[in-house]
């Protein structure tokens, strides 16, 4: 059974930082591209960042470029999202996703597997 478990969310003031983690099990982690997505209250889920299986290819939404960094540790089956200079508009539930296709994940926001999400709240 595939499980993706996010952690690291919380309440932070604007300008602060958080590091999200996504622990994967039940799949060959290095065989999957991974991504972070978010859904704010009343809005659709949107793409945040993606990384290919090797970590050599990454993509970011324009809204987070230069502030967020996606990374992975294949030895630990874990995906990360370092979020700096957080803004109130970053408030959302953040989800990690796994897919065998980098383009499907990064372009079409489609994933084979999803985590349950972690809440990030940025106060002004």
- Stretches where pLDDT falls below 50 for ≥5 residues? none
Q: Characterize the largest beta sheet: strand count, sense, and whether it forms a barrel.
A: 7 strands, mixed
**Beta-strand content estimate:** over 45%
Query: How big is the Rg?
Result: 13 Å
**Average pLDDT over all residues:** 96
Distance between the termini: 40 Å
Structural class: mainly beta
What's the total count of β strands? 11
Approximate shape: globular
Query: SSE string, helix = H, strand = E?
Result: EEEEEEEEEHEE
Number of helices: 1
Classify the helix fraction into a percent range.
under 10%
What can you see in these coordinates?
This protein has 124 residues and is mostly beta strands. Helices cover 6% and strands 49% of the residues. Strands 2, 4, 5, 6, 9, 10 and 11 form a seven-stranded mixed beta sheet that branches. The longest helix is centred in the C-terminal third of the chain and has 7 residues, at 102-108. The protein is globular, with a radius of gyration of 13 Å. The N and C termini lie far apart (40 Å). The model has no long low-confidence stretch (mean pLDDT 96).
Write the layout of secondary structure elements.
Elements: E1 3-7, E2 10-13, E3 18-25, E4 33-39, E5 46-51, E6 58-60, E7 68-73, E8 78-83, E9 92-99, H1 102-108, E10 113-114, E11 118-123
Parallel strand pairs: 2-11
Antiparallel strand pairs: 1-3, 3-8, 4-5, 4-9, 5-6, 7-8, 9-10, 9-11
